[in-house]
Design goal:
CATH class of the largest domain: Alpha Beta
Strand order of the largest sheet: 7-6-5-4-8
Radius of gyration: 19 Å
Strand content: 35-45%
Oligomer: single chain
Number of strands: 8
Largest sheet: 5 strands, antiparallel
CATH superfamily of the largest domain: RimP-like superfamily, N-terminal
Helix content: 25-40%
Distance between the termini: 45 Å
Number of helices: 3
Order of helices and strands: HEEHEHEEEEE
Length: about 160
């Protein structure tokens, strides 16, 4: 099996095991990366939940995940079990949204949206602050001072949580 396919399968398995821990706790995995390097496997996880993720939440998920990795053979022959690191964090106040999934996860949060170009003649600005209304198909909904803007996802250059 080729190394890229093996890594993709390993990442899917690791994420599935992580979600078995986070889902019952009411915690959502916002971002997940696993990459092999000279020092072994580095797993980076960003978590969120209603009311914000605490340090205790991050520590609990980290502890439970590490214990699970000791018991299960998810890492198998892919990596030395003693040679992986796990970094668990919250999204932070000014996180840049990376995927469509995050536009749903962070619904009702204040954001700053930077566009590639104006939405239309009535909305010539390329930067908006407002409350994220989620996704409708390939369109991001943003409430700007009571006005609902429909922004094509492809027209968004960057969206950041705004505190």
């Amino acid at each position: 099996m080729n190394g890229i396919v093996e890594m993709d399968v390993l990442k899917q398995e690791l994420l599935a095991e992580l979600e078995k821990i986070t889902d019952p706790l009411g915690i959502t995995v916002v971002d997940f990366e696993a990459a092999k390097g000279r020092r072994g496997l580095t797993i980076t996880v960003v978590l969120d939940k209603q009311g914000a993720v605490s340090i205790d939440d991050c520590e609990k998920v980290s502890s439970l995940f590490n214990a699970r990795m000791e018991v299960l053979d998810v890492l198998g022959e892919a990596i030395d079990k003693a040679n992986y690191s796990l970094q668990v964090s919250s999204p932070g106040l000014y996180r840049v949204l990376k995927s469509k999934k995050e536009y749903t996860i962070f619904r009702s949060r204040k954001v700053r949206v930077f566009l590639r170009g104006p939405i239309d003649g009535a909305h010539p600005s390329i930067e908006y602050e407002g409350t994220l209304g989620g996704m409708e198909g390939d369109t991001v909904i943003l409430d700007v001072e009571g006005e609902k803007l429909s922004i094509p996802f492809g027209n968004i250059s960057k969206t950041k949580l705004n505190g």
